[in-house]
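Tip: read the tokens left to right.
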């Protein structure tokens, strides 16, 4: 079965929680037995498991995150998500500069190019 490829637009707190959660559940059930970790309603959906989800690209406008691997960028300020796991073997995709669509906001102008 092919992997589910995910693109992240905005490497903020939600992305951080999602990526940490995927990695947490990926490592919680390395065998094919029934999962022992609580928190997921369905560990497998349509034959797919957390191990089948792969972040392949990410975009952000914050220069503190651009150019970093996603697994490092999710921990950069101003992100303040509760730590789920910091042992991330993946994703290794590099965060690319996104287009700043909020040109009227001075706060965004300071953190983008």
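Filled-in amino acids:
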């Amino acid at each position: 079965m092919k992997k589910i490829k995910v693109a992240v637009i905005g490497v903020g707190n939600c992305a951080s929680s999602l990526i940490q959660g995927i990695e947490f559940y990926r490592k919680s059930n390395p065998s094919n037995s029934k999962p022992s970790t609580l928190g997921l309603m369905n560990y497998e959906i349509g034959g797919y498991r957390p191990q089948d989800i792969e972040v392949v690209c990410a975009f952000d406008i914050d220069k503190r995150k651009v150019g970093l691997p996603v697994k490092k960028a999710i921990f950069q300020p101003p992100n303040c998500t509760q730590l789920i796991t910091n042992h991330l073997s993946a994703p290794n995709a590099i965060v690319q500069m996104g287009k700043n669509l909020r040109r009227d906001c001075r706060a965004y102008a300071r953190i983008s190019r």
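The chain has a mean pLDDT of 85. DSSP finds three helices and three strands in the chain.
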